[in-house]
Specification:
2 helices, mainly beta, Metal Binding Protein, Guanine Nucleotide Exchange Factor, Chain A
């Protein structure tokens, strides 16, 4: 698997399991139609339809692309870490039971861990990177 080159700041979050400062990420207050992919390996992670404003300082999603995110017990024992299921890139944490959406789940994701593909470019992105996640199928 080919991995994208990361900036030192991206590496600190993605590899070092860091956290960007709240309200500082490029996707925190960003609501365009498209797809969010792993910045490290380009795996599809979240559709824009699952993004919502939790007013928490980080991009929030209530559902991942099927099979895209792996959940792990955080070393602090109190939270659940989320990683890209393909490459293990640290994404952030997942919280349940907060009542923000009907799915009652909040994936709190670092903007530095993801990249946005605009809706009009998703078909091209699928041709370039493949459609293992079934993104091209009608929903």
């Amino acid at each position: 698997m080919e991995l994208n080159k990361l900036t030192p700041q991206e590496e600190k979050v993605i590899v070092g399991k860091g956290t960007e400062a709240p309200f500082s990420g490029e996707y925190e207050d960003f609501f365009k139609d498209g797809l969010y992919v792993c910045r490290r390996c380009n795996a599809p992670l979240y559709r824009s339809e699952s993004k919502f404003d939790a007013h928490c300082g980080w991009p929030s999603f209530d559902q991942e692309v099927a099979g895209a995110v792996k959940r792990l017990q955080d070393p602090d024992g109190m939270r659940t870490e989320i990683e890209c299921a393909r490459c293990g890139a640290h994404l952030g944490h997942v919280f349940e039971g907060e009542g923000f959406t009907d799915k009652n789940t909040r994936h709190c994701v670092n903007s530095l861990s993801i990249r946005f593909v605009p809706k009009e470019n998703v078909a091209e992105w699928i041709r370039e990177h493949g459609d293992a996640a079934g993104l091209g199928k009608k929903r």
